[in-house]
Each structure stands twice: as structure tokens, then as C-alpha cells.
């Protein structure tokens, strides 16, 4: 295994999935519909419900607020020394994010710990959950001069807010407290940097890996650890496929979405967009998509629709599929008694590679950021730094929702005790690429993904269209969109 600290090259569900917000979009953490890390399957309405009601009240600055004062010596969180920041005395911060109930609790407890750390300065941060329409709510807040001081930032919002100068640069505050940019996995951080400035700090991430039902694998004589190549993957899927009709088991369930297939292009050394041009229809890209089409035609792979599920995680929990390509959002889903997966024993491995290929996966992430127009820039920067600190991210690790964005936490004892989580965090070393950076950038990714899915992926895997012709057609339309 590669050194965990040597992260390879590196969505927001709301952009792609009409029914949920994900570490990807919507500001949730790492379940389909999560803010940090996360991207579920299309139609995964049952995976991660949006945050419920119960928004906190907005705090009002007391008289005299706004004067600065050095935090007392010893105001530290892990390796960070907040005593070096001149936080505004009595600062009252509003903090907004979207997410399911578990994520909301993580955000609230993070705010509580921040408030305790800065209690002597009268600084308080109030968490205000955003139940739905997260991106719309945040952008409307900026338009109406009512945006929160601190908030969850995804690729979509980064592309909208950073060019307008609406995000607070964090580099000086990072330097003051001792936070180095290299502390984060670089692909995650680079998404939130522009023109040499850092506007957001990644809060976590989720990769795509291969989950395998260990009982079905044993029955079929398949060793999950042996599924390292495409050939082994094909053989395993074939062996684990069984039965017909409503009781059948598909060797692998897949989501007909370019987000799921992109890693297999990377493994062939093929990008999706390069130099502002579509390249996914190159020979190696065609080969990657054809591999999945052949699996489907052989009967060893099925879409979640064909398995009568709302997404592949549900098919996996119901044991209608022996394997799925998903992220860490699957883990809490499988422990939910209402989903029926609590009795399923499973393991996870890194995505298999073609013979002579290279490591490759896709990463989903979100960040915390501060409003450039906040009345309390020092306190807001301190909040972003604290929410992404070791002290705060350790609770995230324990929740199992996502993996920490700080490289130092890849050695947390939790991973030694949780093999699946270990595979997920190790995926950071698998030439992981952040979703927003491979589809033409944050401002164009939604259109690019939509066009590829509508003009190629869906016609191929739902309509049976020719792989090469469909990819060529999609590439032509994507190039037209990129040229506008």
C-alpha cells in the first residue's frame, strides 16, 4: 500500500440528483446527498434524507461587539494555536449547512466545542440547518446581504461565489494558528483555491470503492482480496450471479452515471475533459465503458432500476446484488434497520484495475468557508479552522459518515479497528481525483455530466446504443457547451 501521506492526483449531488443533496451537493457530508463527501446513486431518495427543521435562532452581537482581543494563551485545538488570532470580542456568528440528522448533530456539536473554546471572549456560533434548496438559500442570502458568517461550501458555490469576491481568504489565519496547506489532501484543498488564495478548507471526503457481500462471495468460491484486476472483477461478477426473476442476484449493481464510470477511464490513463475539450471518447475511454457494457450484456451486471431498487445500495442491502461501486455513505445505510441490510456481511476493496493500468478513483468533498462581508472576519476564520481541525474531525471519523480531510488523521486508531473504513481512507492514495475538477470545473460540471449521461451513458446502458457512436455524439455536444 502506498504511504497514506502521499495523496495522488485528485459534487454535489444537488447538481446531479434531483431528489437529494450530497459530499457532494446540498451541503451534506458523505452519504448520497452529503456535503462533504458523498454521492449516491441516481434516485437514491432513501439514502440520506435532507436535514430536518429546527434551525437555530440568529445571534445578535452585544453592544460594543467588534473590538478585537487576543484569545488567551492555551486556546488551542489539537496542533492549532488560536491564541495567535485577534478574534473580535463578543462576535456572534451564524453557521449554515445542510445534511441528514446525523450530520446536523455533528455540526451542532462542532459549534458547541467552538463556543466552549472561545467562551472567555464572548464569541458564539449558532448553527442554522438548511432543510432544503441549500445552494439557492446560500446564494439568496448573499444577494440579500443576509448570508451566514460561516457555511458549508461545495464546488458549485465555490464556482459562483469566489469569482465575485464573496468568500473570505483564509491563508493569513491559517498561517497564524499553524495550519499548513499541506496538512490537507491536496486534491481536496485545490478545489477551494483560486488565484493563489484559499477560500475554503475541506471538511472530509468520500471515495468510490468496491463493496462485496462476503457470504455470497464465499458461496461462489470468490476471494474478495483477489478482485484486483478487471478480469478478476468480471470473473467474480459472473460467478456470483445466480437465479432469475425477482429472486435473482446480480454479480454487480451499477448506476448508469458517468460519475461511476469515470474512475475506470482514469485507470486507462484517459481523462474526461482535458484542455477544455472532451476526451472521454478516446480509444481507452471507449474501452472502459465497453467493459461495463459487456458485463451488462453477459448478465453479470445490472442497473439498480433493473433490480427494482432506488439505488445500488438498496439492492446490496436486499442481497439482490453481490457487489456495488459506492462510497462511504453506504456504511451508515447498511446499519439502518429500516433498510434491511443489518444482517449483510460485507467487505471493501479498492477499485480493480485493467491489466497494465493505473490506480484511479473519484473523490467527493465539501468544505467550510466564511463570508467575505462578515462583521467578524477573524472569528469567522477561526470557526472554519476549528471545524476542520483534528479536534473536530475525530468525531466525524467515529461517525463513519466520511473520511477526514487531514492526512494526519489517516492513522487514527479507528481505522485499525474498522477494515472497511481503512479501505475508504486508503483510497486517498489511489490516484483520487475530485469530481468537480474532472468535468470541466465547478461552473460547468453539471452541464458536462448531464450531457454525457443523456447522450451516451443512458442510451448505452438503458437503450442498448453503440458505445463508440454514443460517446462521440456526447463529446461533440460537450465541446459545444465548453466553447460557450
Query: What's the overall geometry?
Result: globular
User: Got a strand count?
Assistant: 19
Distance between the termini: 43 Å
Question: Do you know the CATH architecture of the largest domain?
Answer: 3-Layer(aba) Sandwich
Uncertain regions: pLDDT < 50 for 5+ in a row?
1-74
The CATH homologous superfamily of the largest domain:
Periplasmic binding protein-like II
Give the count of helical stretches.
19
Going by helix content, strand content and strand pairing, the class is alpha/beta
Strand content: 5-15%
Tally of structural domains = 2
How would you sum up this structure, described in words?
It is a single chain. The protein has 484 residues and is α/β, with parallel strands linked by helices. The protein folds into two domains: 13-207 and 364-428, D-Maltodextrin-Binding Protein, domain 2; 209-361 and 437-483, D-Maltodextrin-Binding Protein, domain 2 (3-Layer(aba) Sandwich), CATH 3.40.190. Helix content is 36%, strand content 15%. It contains 19 helices and 19 strands. It has helices at residues 13-16, 101-117, 134-143, 155-161, 171-177, 186-190, 214-219, 230-240, 258-267, 283-298, 312-317, 330-334, 377-387, 390-399, 413-417, 419-426, 435-438, 445-461, 467-483, and strands spanning 28-29, 35-36, 76-77, 80-81, 92-97, 124-129, 150-153, 193-194, 197-198, 201-207, 209-213, 252-254, 273-274, 277-278, 301-303, 323-326, 346-349, 361-370, 432-434. The strands form seven sheets. Strands 5, 6, 7, 10, 18 and 19 form a six-stranded mixed sheet that branches. A three-stranded antiparallel sheet has the order 16-11-17. Strand 3 (76-77) and strand 4 (80-81) form a beta hairpin. The longest helix has 17 residues, at 101-117. It is globular. The protein starts with 12 loop residues before the first helix and ends with a helix.
